[in-house]
Amino acid sequence: MANKKFSDFTNQPSSANTFLVGYDGATNVRIPVTDSLFQGGVNKYVIELDGSLSNVTFSTAGGKTFIDVTHNLNNSDIVPQIYLNDGGGDEIYYTTIYIQTPNTLRIESAQGMASGTFKLLILY
């Protein structure tokens, strides 16, 4: 199997005989897909950025809009994204997002962001 490119492998569902192969620094290893290493997943948290919610606070200063969100995920390893709240969910709105604590973040935008117009998706 030497000198095989990743693209040479076929894409197929795993079976009882499927393993991930690698090197642990001393020996070659094979890990079955049933190993707990592969049992994790990605969780998501979605909230409408609506100022009437108790955990969403809008403010403005210096021509910028700030939105503070308390998500209580107790996790700083998150991937936040802002989407238009039009049901499509496919148009990403680019802002600056600061992860302030494991439970809060701040969204900063140089453009106005009206309450209820956007939603926040957090992958963790």
| Overall geometric form | elongated
CATH topology of the domain at 44-123: Elongation Factor Tu (Ef-tu), domain 3
CATH class of the domain at 44-123: Mainly Beta
Q: SSE order, as H and E?
A: EEEEEEEEEE
Per CATH, the architecture of the domain at 44-123 is Beta Barrel
Per DSSP, what share of the residues sits in E-state strands of 2 or more residues? 35-45%
Radius of gyration: 21 Å
Tally of separate helices: 0
What does it look like?
The protein is built from no helices and ten strands. The chain is mainly β. The protein has a domain at 44-123: Elongation Factor Tu (Ef-tu), domain 3 (Beta Barrel). The strands form three sheets. A four-stranded antiparallel beta sheet has the order 3-10-6-7, with no helix packed on it. Strands 4-5-9-8 form a four-stranded antiparallel beta sheet, with no helix packed on it. A two-stranded antiparallel sheet has the order 1-2. The chain is elongated, with a radius of gyration of 21 Å. The two termini are 36 Å apart.
Task: Please sum up the structure shown.
A hairpin with a 2-residue loop joins strand 8 (96-101) and strand 9. The protein has strands spanning 19-23, 28-32, 44-48, 56-61, 64-70, 79-84, 92-93, 96-101, 104-109, 118-123. The protein contains no helices and 10 strands.
Q: Which key features would you list for this structure?
A:
single chain; 124 residues; Elongation Factor Tu (Ef-tu), domain 3; 4-stranded antiparallel beta sheet; 0% helix; 44% strand
Topology overview:
Elements: E1 19-23, E2 28-32, E3 44-48, E4 56-61, E5 64-70, E6 79-84, E7 92-93, E8 96-101, E9 104-109, E10 118-123
